[in-house]
Design goal:
Blueprint (H helix, E strand, L loop, with lengths): L12 H16 L1 H16 L11 E2 L2 E2 L1 H9 L11 H8 L3 H13 L7 H15 L13 H4 L7
Length: 153
């Protein structure tokens, strides 16, 4: 089990489909988009462009969500990095987004990824999730499955 709470032992495909829908909705939503923009700014403002795994803050270094907490001036020393509900409420985002960011931060790279490489990878992921004016999420046309544009052309 990871800090994100994800598991390889999933027997129910419908649960996975529902969960991925919740993650997509959290990323697409106004709160998620605002948080991702704030996270990108916090990552860009970091003096030392390094991200840690498996904790919010340790030894003065932070994970991706920890970067936002540091930018906001939140004392994160007593926050449990596996208490998803509390963290989601503290940062004003959906629990699904909290877990997805933890997964990307901690497990999205290679086993021996350096903190500097993690920073670059996570920053790129955050930037890819942000919907630009007039663009589609992740650059993909998803209107066909959202039902908003009728049948595919």
């Amino acid at each position: 089990m990871s800090r994100a709470g994800y598991s390889d032992e999933l027997d129910d495909n419908w649960s996975l489909i529902c969960w991925r829908g919740a993650v997509a909705s959290a990323i697409r939503g106004a709160r998620g988009q605002a948080f991702l923009r704030e996270m990108l700014a916090a990552l860009d403002a970091m003096k030392d462009r390094r991200l840690i795994a498996n904790d919010l803050i340790a030894g003065g270094e932070v994970c991706a969500i920890g970067a936002v907490g540091a930018a906001r001036g939140i004392d994160m020393t007593n926050l449990d990095p596996e208490d998803y509900g509390t963290l989601a409420a503290k940062f004003g985002i959906a629990e699904a987004l909290t877990r997805e960011i933890f997964f990307e931060n901690d497990e999205g790279g290679s086993f021996k990824e350096t903190p500097e490489a993690r920073y670059l990878r996570v920053r790129r992921w955050v930037e890819e999730q942000i919907v630009r004016e007039g663009s589609k999420p992740n650059g993909r046309d998803t209107s066909w499955w959202l039902g908003s544009a009728g049948p595919r052309a």
